[in-house]
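Chapter review: from sequence to fold.
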Amino acid sequence: MKCAACGHEARGKFCGKCGARIDASPRNEAFPEQRSAVVETEEQEPVEQEPIEQELVGQELVAQDPAEQEPAQQAEQVVQASDQQLMDQREQAPLSPATAANPPAAAPLPANVHSTVMPATANTSLRGWSLSFAAAAALFGMLGAGVAWFFAVLAKRSEFLQDMLYRLLKSSFGISPEQAAFFSGQLADSWRLQMILLSGGRISGSYMTRPSGQEPVAASFSIHFPLLFHLGVLLALAILLGYGSRKLVRRYSRTEMGRLGWVAAFGLTYAIMVTIAISVLHSKPKLAFGSDIYTLDYHAEPAGTFIYAFLVSSIGMAVGIGGWKLLSSTQWGSWVLSFRGFAAVLAGSYALVFALMVIGWSLVGPDRLYNPNLTTMSSVWQMYNKDPASYAVVPNVLLQEQIYSLGGTWEIGGPRSAQLLQADGPLKISEWEGLSAGGPEGSDEVEGTNGSVSDRASRLSSDLRWNWFSFALLLSYLYALTRIRLRSVAVYAISVIGAILVLAASAAYFSVGIRYGEEAAERIGYDGLQSGLAIGLITVIFLTLSFAAQRIFGRLKEGQAHAE
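The token string follows.
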């Protein structure tokens, strides 16, 4: 192969005449005059080096002139000669105790010779990468198990949790009072139940009766009861673990795609671990009345648990690690960081509204707070305000009030759900449409004799339809939207779509779902499609005004800056 610099015919990667790389273009292609001068200078000043008599080529020994040898081959031969000399010295003279403790250092390499030893092999890096996220997932699993154990200890003294379980088993599933009381006591302090609630709150099971001398009868059930409080605890643990794992992740994943793969592998490993753990740890509370045996079997839904665990752990770990290129962008980075202000406004408004609600409840007599027709948050607080477990449902209540203030229609979707909340029957209530019967199964107390809403339901509607905290939450949401930075049409469109999807998905996911036997599923909460349309209308209108205002004020500031 000919050298591109001097045209000399040579083999190997370097030219034996000028020393340039054969397989690379010359560095000074734009200045051929300077390059030719450099070549002439190198020809006039040969490299002084001790003659090397032989070169190993394949299996033959070929004599070669030192001037014709390539620089890379000369450097390699110098290293080999130094190593061979050191090995000969070690073989000829045994090491003394002092020499064995402090072995002689290798001969220094020439200035033009660079070491080719890699700091770590690929297999070692891959093994460290794999073990690091597996260890992080195991630690995260142990933290979650510890939190579940702590919640189970607190639940042993919780009257609120036992009463809710008792009402669910008795009213919604039709279990007799004696059996419902026994099973609620067995489930209230269950570590496994707390792990299921931390993993999304999707529970399936069966209730089996074995009367004496008769065949057993079983009825299946499923309930979806997600708690926003448990989600926040698990997400906070993932963020803290991600913050503590920054150095570990960046050690084995030097690129952003590598870190993203590490986060995904961490979430996948944790999801597999928690799904297997909840499925293996199985318990069946049993109650015996003489020769009659009653069994309650429950377990978590594997698919829902896996998806929930993967999403929560991955998102929390990604937030904790940080350092993503998206945040360094001027346009998208400011948009993402502006969501901190959006979330801070909502969180602060929720805390303020709930504090004012508690103050109002404490100043009003119990007879006005407790509604015998429907279990509300005010009646729950009046009965269980000294029980810490009752405050775990407060975030769910505030989220539902937020969606209600934006036009969502809250509903009790069936008779079993109505019995759970001690309502007269299925119903729907909206801030704009008022109260209406929930369907053909609505009772006369709600629907009225001629299909209209009864007087008793009208009074209930007046109590629930208009509330000061609904307006407060609406105003806080609109103000929080102004905290989002909208620098372009693309950012505006993604903000609108993101707000609608997040709130609509939250409305659907954080609604309680009940199914018993072959009956149709019932819902206590919001329909995702209807809530998404209502929320989308308000969000589009207000974000459009906010986008226009930011564009106008931004141009005015630019004009003032140019004028100055």
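Two observations follow directly from the output. The two ends are 65 Å apart (CA to CA). The longest strand covers residues 202-210.
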